[in-house]
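Regression test case RT-17, inverse folding.

Input:
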């Protein structure tokens, strides 16, 4: 690994080990998730000036009024998504920095990810390339519509909060498929896991969370 990926001091493997220990204390149990987070250099996904804080348990700004989710939330959402066994096709709405995408690509067969802010998508693509993570397709679009072309998905993860769950996302799940999504208005929402059943959905309220809002339309830039 080159120096940038390997990290040093606050971006080193040792710092990542401490992050993993903390995630365990916080209740994350899925060993595959912990292993992948141990091996993935989170510091390349944050802005240069913030790299020494990349492994702190907090969201960090990534530009355009957006944030990279805190490690605990990434771990928890991934664990919730994978709880019912390994998945093949996963759709992510809100690529952002690409960190959650990078974690997913190492745990499922194929990841489809949608982002509405083009420069963020471009930066995420560069990071994923640098890590040789290739089982991912990206789309610049409003993810509230899902990504019909590759539907249905075994799982969908949404990293921005709508006030109501977009029906298109439910429709693009296989029966038994799960949607992990923060739902609510304003500064506080509830993380939900929604399972598509034969005749509807089953909703589990997991925990209160704070996410940026799911917005409509796309921006070029
Ligand atoms: N998983 C990302 C989270 C980024 S924040 C990370 O850890 O870095 C949420 C992201 O969702 C932002 O990049 C924002 O631009 C994006 N987003 C918001 N509304 C969206 C929409 N309707 N479609 C696609 N992406 C959206």
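Golden output:
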């Amino acid at each position: 690994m080159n120096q940038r990926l390997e990290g040093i001091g606050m971006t080193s493997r040792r710092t990542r080990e401490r992050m993993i220990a903390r995630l365990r204390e916080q209740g994350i149990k899925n060993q595959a998730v912990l292993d992948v987070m141990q091996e993935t250099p989170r510091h390349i996904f944050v802005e240069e000036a913030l790299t020494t804080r990349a492994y702190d348990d907090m969201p960090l700004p990534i530009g355009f009024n957006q944030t990279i989710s805190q490690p605990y939330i990434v771990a928890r959402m991934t664990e919730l998504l994978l709880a019912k066994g390994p998945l093949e096709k996963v759709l992510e709405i809100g690529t952002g920095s690409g960190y959650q995408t990078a974690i997913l690509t190492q745990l499922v067969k194929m990841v489809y990810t949608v982002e509405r802010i083009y420069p963020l998508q471009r930066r995420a693509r560069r990071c994923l390339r640098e890590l040789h993570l290739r089982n991912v397709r990206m789309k610049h679009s409003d993810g509230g519509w899902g990504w019909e072309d590759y539907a249905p998905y075994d799982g969908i993860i949404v990293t921005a909060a709508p006030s109501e769950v977009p029906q298109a996302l439910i429709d693009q799940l296989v029966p038994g498929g799960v949607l992990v999504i923060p739902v609510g208005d304003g500064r506080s929402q509830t993380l939900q896991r929604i399972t598509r059943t034969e005749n509807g959905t089953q909703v589990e309220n997991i925990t209160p969370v704070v996410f940026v809002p799911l917005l409509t339309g796309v921006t070029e830039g």
